[in-house]
Design brief:
alpha/beta; eight-stranded mixed β-sheet; seven-stranded mixed β-sheet; 41 strands; 35% helix
């Protein structure tokens, strides 16, 4: 069914969802064309489930039933189906009812709801997902409550209703449980929804990273090509599961020592993960074969998709649709692959040749294969291992959001590193990153600041400065380069978080110590005077000095600087051991080493020199090759050393990494203190809703309306935001009359778009104390800038002097509502000195917002001036945040200028834009993105 065949068909209700076990399903409206699917679905449901649905034996659906369940008006009667492979696995419907329980139409706001899920798919979270989506549909159609009758023995369905988190009433009537659910989202229902989302998406990634069996499709018989390379890497990594090679022209039982088959369907065992390395035109057949065989996930290495132009992008969209239709997840296409170093898995389904990276505590995600290679190489050189690695290529399905869901409760990952070219869903990413950063560091290097046209990964229209601010609000450590990504990741993976910004510096070079000291100051740290041990210092001198610094209450971190001795290699191990001994003696503070041309020290500190890579174990499905042996038997798998001390070839790099750790530690401590969204007793939420409904009554869907001045003032006043009146002055006489109403002194200013808020162009006259001064200023203004009709002058009462600021909120389609603050004037605009926070803002967000601009000292008594009333400014920000959070119809607000005085503030001008809200927002049901 399409909009073309049925204009009433609500295509925006279609969605792909991840189920509890990590598989996917498609939820869509049921149409008249689904009669055959409905009958087939019902035949596969057990008699017990049918009894629970209809409260009586109901072996088959009558023709009347089929018509009733497939014919809907999508307003008062709605049915949704969850499908896999085009077939129904679950259904839900609602029928609007009146107070008497009989069918009704709007304005009746209650509906009866009922579910049926195929027995084979019960326990996968199908009913919970359907309830989320039918609830969103009902709210869109003006339904506020669901009523359901459930048999007491149907405990599973009762649990679906009671666990959803909605406010509800429950009673027992006529042998059944009667449930009434209020569909207004609550903090509890949102928490339940997001917890389910996290578990489902994490499980879907876990199925990709820890499969029990892998098939590589597209393995050449010659051993050349991408497929053969992927197979060798899987085999040589020691993958613990079953491994299969697939080549449609294979004529022997083994390919490269691995059991070979012509098709996936010929494999007489389950396949959890398929790695596809065939030309793009053959991928659909491979996907179909995998779907029919029950494969759970795909890694598509094949190129020729979105990166190749419009035709490739269309091919990519069809690939995602096909993959999800079978309930699978997809990494790629154009992917580099995935790695999992867990000892029970040892999966290298990537193009990274053996040896596989060491086992470590860093999780790594990249969109770019080339960047992934560079990062893997950098980590290997510096002795750091990985827990998992995903290079998602075109990121058509599985994205950084999914990987964050997995890393959140992955006990093998302590630090999350991500290289991202775009943020497809910034609001969700910042939400997930904030939750993850609360328990482990999240470090992001974001490329694609100036993404070229036609780039494969969809992005956001948010300015780069706004993206950075939102990431900081979420506790994300934002770095500029992949080198910094590795530098920061190494420190966070190997060292504890610093308790503060005080840094001790010690070493055998006074010059290097001074450079480190300067770097600390540049990063906002508080360095202590460097301790020069002189070039004659021995390893024992370093040990003693480091132990003393770590034991001191005057520092929170230590940077050790070292330059070469005459016999560098002879002393490198001794110095590394001395530093480790000091750290072990006085643990709890981070230590970083800055070295100059001391390669042997780098190896010794990373504890990798002379230690072999873990030996691969034999993969099931591979030919029985002998296991490589070390001098005393099998080489043991070894995680990255737990007593590593990160080292850096430049003071600036070490200090930058340390400074990021300091700022992250401060964010974590601030998070523990919490923040809250205040309730204002004088807010008229209902009145604002009624006003907005009236204003938008004649506005078309998709159009926006800029409110008239009086409407804007009225709406803002409902949230305690007072805008000073400005009376029009089309002539000098009108200006005098306006001043008589407002009272002297007054201000005269233009409101023409090209002069608005541009005092530097002479369009504002202040402190006019009498009629003569007002008439003289009016004449000067019109002589200088143009006729009154062009200038649109207004007269406004003077307000107490203070600092002119700008407060705004705007709705970004991807990020949602964003609150912004800066000082008024061309200097701030030119320098981009504006701070941003996501809505709803907490009291801590508002306080941080006004303090995070570079010109913030002007608010706090810079150069002897009086500090302004920042608490009043914070309250204004919170009230505006509450307004746009309560009413998604408000898509833009600009308060400019806001004059903040020593006591109180004055909003002199306001612009408000409104529109019909989108059908679904961040409070809507769980869905996968569609490209």
């Amino acid at each position: 069914m399409t909009i073309e065949s049925d204009p009433s068909y609500p295509a925006h209700w279609e969605a792909d969802v991840v189920l509890r076990d990590g598989g996917t399903a498609r939820i869509r409206p049921i149409t008249t064309e689904d009669a055959g699917r409905l009958v087939s679905f019902y035949e596969q449901v057990s008699d017990e489930s049918k009894y629970y649905r209809f409260f009586a034996p109901y072996p088959r659906l009558s023709d009347r039933d089929v018509r009733r369940f497939t014919h809907h008006d999508y307003v008062d009667r709605v049915g949704l189906a969850a499908t896999i492979g085009g077939e129904f696995i679950g259904t839900v419907r609602y029928d609007r009812i009146g107070p008497d329980g009989r069918p009704a139409s709007a304005p009746a706001d209650e509906a009866e709801v009922a579910f049926l899920v195929q027995d084979a798919h019960q326990g996968r979270g199908v009913a919970s997902a359907l309830l989320e989506h039918i609830g969103a549909v009902a709210r869109e159609r003006g339904i506020r409550r669901f009523a359901a009758e459930v048999l007491p023995a149907n405990s599973k369905m009762i649990k679906v209703f009671t666990d959803v988190g909605y406010q509800q009433k429950r009673s027992f009537e006529d042998g059944s449980v009667h449930l009434t659910l209020d569909l207004e989202p609550t903090a509890e229902s949102l928490a339940v929804q997001r917890a389910r989302e996290q578990r489902a998406e994490a499980h879907s990634v876990q199925r990709l990273l820890a499969p029990g069996s892998v098939a590589v499709i597209g393995v050449s018989r010659s051993g050349a090509g991408v497929g053969a390379a992927a197979l060798r890497n899987l085999r040589d990594s020691g993958f613990h599961g079953h491994l299969y090679a697939v080549n449609e022209a294979v004529t022997r039982d083994l390919l490269d020592g691995v059991r070979a088959y012509r098709t996936v369907g010929a494999i007489d065992a389950p396949v959890d993960l398929a790695v596809i390395a065939v030309p793009a035109e053959r991928v659909p057949d491979a996907v179909a074969a995998c779907g029919e065989h029950g494969v759970q996930g795909l890694v598509v290495l094949s190129a020729g998709y979105g990166e190749s132009g419009p035709d490739g992008l269309a091919r990519q969209r069809e690939l995602v649709r096909q993959v999800r239709s079978y309930g699978m997840r997809l990494i790629g296409p154009n992917a580099y692959g995935v790695i999992n170093t867990a000892p029970e898995v040892e999966l290298n389904a990537s193009l990274t040749p053996a040896p596989m990276p060491m086992r470590g505590r860093i999780g790594l995600f990249t969109q770019s294969g080339a960047i992934g290679i560079a990062l893997l190489s950098a980590l290997l050189r510096r002795g750091e291992g990985l827990s998992s690695f995903v290079s998602a290529g075109n990121r058509a399905d599985v994205s950084g959001n999914d990987i964050l869901q997995y890393w959140y409760d992955d006990e093998t990952t302590d630090v999350a590193l991500l290289y991202l070219e775009t943020l497809g869903n910034p609001r969700k990413f910042t939400r997930l990153a904030r939750r993850t950063a609360a328990v482990k560091p999240v470090v992001v290097a974001k490329g694609g600041r100036h993404t070229p046209a036609g780039h494969v990964v969809p992005g956001t229209r948010l300015p780069e400065a706004t993206v950075s601010a939102l990431l900081r609000q979420a506790g994300v450590i934002r770095v500029d380069t992949v080198t910094e990504l590795v530098d920061v990741g190494l420190l966070l993976a190997a060292q504890p978080l610093p308790a503060g910004p005080r840094v001790a510096i010690l070493g055998n070079s006074e010059s290097l110590g001074i450079l480190t000291y300067d770097a600390c100051l540049a990063q906002g740290l508080r360095p202590l005077p460097p301790l020069d041990l002189t070039t004659a210092a021995a390893p024992e001198d370093f040990r003693a000095a480091l132990a003393a610094a770590l034991a001191s209450d005057d520092c929170d971190a230590v940077v050790v600087t070292a330059i070469p001795w005459v016999s560098e290699h002879a002393l490198a191990d001794d110095l590394a051991d001395a530093l480790r001994e000091a750290v072990a003696e006085v643990p709890g503070k981070p230590v970083a080493v800055v070295h100059v041309e001391l390669g042997a020290l780098v190896e010794a500190l990373s504890a990798t020199r002379g230690l072999p890579h873990p030996a691969p174990s034999r993969t099931r499905g591979a030919a029985p090759d002998p296991v490589p042996q070390g001098p005393a038997g099998p080489v043991p798998a070894r995680p990255a050393s737990e007593d590593r001390i990160p080292s850096y070839p430049a003071a600036e790099r070490a200090v930058r990494a340390l400074a990021e750790a300091v700022r992250y530690g401060q964010w974590r401590r601030g998070l523990a203190e919490g923040g809250y969204v205040p309730e204002f007793e004088d807010v008229d939420e209902a009145g604002a809703a009624d006003q907005l409904a009236g204003l938008l009554a004649d506005v078309d869907e998709g159009a926006a309306l800029t409110l008239a001045e009086w409407d804007a003032r009225e709406l803002l006043a409902r949230y305690g935001i007072t805008v000073r009146s400005a009376l029009p002055a089309p002539s000098a006489d009108a200006a005098v009359r306006a001043a008589a109403i407002l009272g002297y002194p007054v201000a005269l200013k233009t409101t023409a778009p090209h002069l608005r808020h541009r005092a530097d162009l002479g369009g504002v006259r202040l402190d006019l104390a009498n009629e003569a001064g007002l008439r003289r200023s009016y004449e000067e203004l019109t002589d200088l800038l143009g006729k009154p009709a062009e200038l649109r002058p207004v007269v406004q009462a003077m307000v107490p002097r203070g600092v002119d600021t700008v407060v705004r909120s705007v709705i970004d389609p991807a990020a949602g509502a964003v609150l912004s603050f800066g000082l008024a004037g061309v200097a701030s605009e030119l320098l981009g000195d504006t701070a941003h926070r996501l809505v709803p803002a907490t009291d801590r967000d508002a306080a941080g917002l006004i303090r995070s601009i570079r010109a913030a000292p002007l608010l706090f008594g810079w150069r002897g001036s009086d500090p302004v009333d920042t608490p009043a400014l914070e309250e204004l920000l919170l009230r505006l945040s509450r307004l746009v959070d309560d009413h998604p119809e408000v898509i833009g607000v600009s308060l400019e200028p806001v004059v903040v005085a020593a006591e109180g503030l004055s909003v002199l001008s306001a612009t408000v834009r409104v529109a019909h809200p989108p059908a679904r927002g961040d409070l809507g049901p769980r869905t996968l993105p569609s490209y």
